[in-house]
Task: inverse folding
Protein backbone atom coordinates (compact mmCIF):
# COMPACT_ATOMS: atom_id res chain seq x y z
CA UNK A 1 0.00 0.00 0.00
CA UNK A 2 0.99 3.59 -0.54
CA UNK A 3 1.61 5.44 2.73
CA UNK A 4 -0.25 8.76 3.02
CA UNK A 5 0.65 10.84 6.08
CA UNK A 6 -1.26 14.02 5.18
CA UNK A 7 -4.21 14.82 2.94
CA UNK A 8 -4.84 18.19 1.31
CA UNK A 9 -8.02 19.42 -0.35
CA UNK A 10 -7.25 21.71 -3.30
CA UNK A 11 -10.38 23.87 -3.42
CA UNK A 12 -10.01 25.48 -6.85
CA UNK A 13 -11.99 23.52 -9.50
CA UNK A 14 -9.90 21.70 -12.08
CA UNK A 15 -10.55 20.19 -15.49
CA UNK A 16 -10.71 16.42 -14.90
CA UNK A 17 -8.89 15.77 -18.17
CA UNK A 18 -5.76 16.85 -16.29
CA UNK A 19 -3.21 14.12 -15.80
CA UNK A 20 -0.65 13.63 -13.03
CA UNK A 21 1.76 16.23 -14.43
CA UNK A 22 -0.84 18.98 -14.54
CA UNK A 23 -2.13 18.10 -11.06
CA UNK A 24 1.44 18.16 -9.80
CA UNK A 25 1.94 21.60 -11.35
CA UNK A 26 -1.10 22.88 -9.40
CA UNK A 27 0.33 21.50 -6.15
CA UNK A 28 3.74 23.06 -6.80
CA UNK A 29 2.17 26.45 -7.58
CA UNK A 30 -0.07 26.38 -4.50
CA UNK A 31 2.36 24.92 -1.95
CA UNK A 32 5.80 25.36 -3.46
CA UNK A 33 6.30 21.59 -3.78
CA UNK A 34 4.72 18.19 -3.33
CA UNK A 35 5.79 16.51 -0.11
CA UNK A 36 6.53 12.79 -0.01
CA UNK A 37 3.67 10.71 1.45
CA UNK A 38 1.14 13.52 1.03
CA UNK A 39 -2.10 13.26 -0.95
CA UNK A 40 -3.73 16.14 -2.85
CA UNK A 41 -7.44 16.01 -3.73
CA UNK A 42 -9.00 17.90 -6.66
CA UNK A 43 -12.57 18.19 -8.04
CA UNK A 44 -14.20 19.48 -11.20
CA UNK A 45 -16.38 22.62 -11.17
CA UNK A 46 -19.62 20.66 -10.57
CA UNK A 47 -17.99 18.47 -7.89
CA UNK A 48 -19.17 15.32 -9.65
CA UNK A 49 -15.66 13.91 -10.07
CA UNK A 50 -12.53 13.96 -7.92
CA UNK A 51 -8.90 13.03 -8.43
CA UNK A 52 -6.28 12.19 -5.82
CA UNK A 53 -2.59 12.75 -6.47
CA UNK A 54 -0.18 11.02 -4.07
CA UNK A 55 3.59 11.48 -3.97
CA UNK A 56 5.04 8.21 -2.65
CA UNK A 57 8.62 9.43 -2.32
CA UNK A 58 9.69 8.11 -5.74
CA UNK A 59 6.94 9.23 -8.11
CA UNK A 60 3.28 10.17 -8.19
CA UNK A 61 0.07 8.14 -8.26
CA UNK A 62 -3.22 9.44 -9.58
CA UNK A 63 -6.65 7.99 -8.79
CA UNK A 64 -10.09 9.16 -9.94
CA UNK A 65 -13.56 8.71 -8.47
CA UNK A 66 -17.08 9.71 -9.43
CA UNK A 67 -20.40 9.16 -7.75
CA UNK A 68 -23.20 7.38 -9.58
CA UNK A 69 -25.63 10.03 -8.34
CA UNK A 70 -25.23 13.36 -6.58
CA UNK A 71 -22.14 15.43 -5.93
CA UNK A 72 -19.19 15.48 -3.61
CA UNK A 73 -19.46 17.99 -0.75
CA UNK A 74 -16.91 20.60 -1.84
CA UNK A 75 -16.17 23.97 -0.18
CA UNK A 76 -17.06 26.96 -2.34
CA UNK A 77 -16.72 30.11 -0.23
CA UNK A 78 -13.17 29.92 1.10
CA UNK A 79 -9.74 31.09 -0.10
CA UNK A 80 -8.93 28.84 -3.04
CA UNK A 81 -5.23 29.76 -3.08
CA UNK A 82 -4.18 27.40 -0.25
CA UNK A 83 -5.24 23.77 0.13
CA UNK A 84 -7.10 22.66 3.27
CA UNK A 85 -5.73 19.94 5.52
CA UNK A 86 -8.07 16.94 5.90
CA UNK A 87 -8.15 14.28 8.56
CA UNK A 88 -8.46 10.65 7.53
CA UNK A 89 -12.07 10.59 8.76
CA UNK A 90 -12.91 13.71 6.73
CA UNK A 91 -11.31 12.19 3.63
CA UNK A 92 -13.19 8.92 4.10
CA UNK A 93 -16.51 10.80 4.36
CA UNK A 94 -15.72 13.09 1.43
CA UNK A 95 -14.97 10.28 -1.04
CA UNK A 96 -18.30 8.65 -0.11
CA UNK A 97 -20.16 11.91 -0.79
CA UNK A 98 -20.99 12.53 2.88
CA UNK A 99 -20.95 15.95 4.63
CA UNK A 100 -17.34 15.70 5.84
CA UNK A 101 -17.28 19.28 7.17
CA UNK A 102 -19.90 18.39 9.81
CA UNK A 103 -18.33 15.19 11.22
CA UNK A 104 -17.78 16.75 14.64
CA UNK A 105 -21.47 17.78 14.83
CA UNK A 106 -22.69 14.38 13.69
CA UNK A 107 -20.64 12.49 16.29
CA UNK A 108 -22.90 13.73 19.14
CA UNK A 109 -26.66 13.22 19.36
CA UNK A 110 -28.25 16.38 20.73
CA UNK A 111 -31.95 15.86 19.93
CA UNK A 112 -34.33 13.03 20.65
Result:
Amino acid sequence: MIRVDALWLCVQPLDMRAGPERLLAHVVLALGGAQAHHGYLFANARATRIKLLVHDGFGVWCAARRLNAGRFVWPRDIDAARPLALTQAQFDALVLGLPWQRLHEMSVITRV
About this structure: Helices lie at 20-31, 88-95, 103-106. DSSP finds three helices and five strands in the chain.
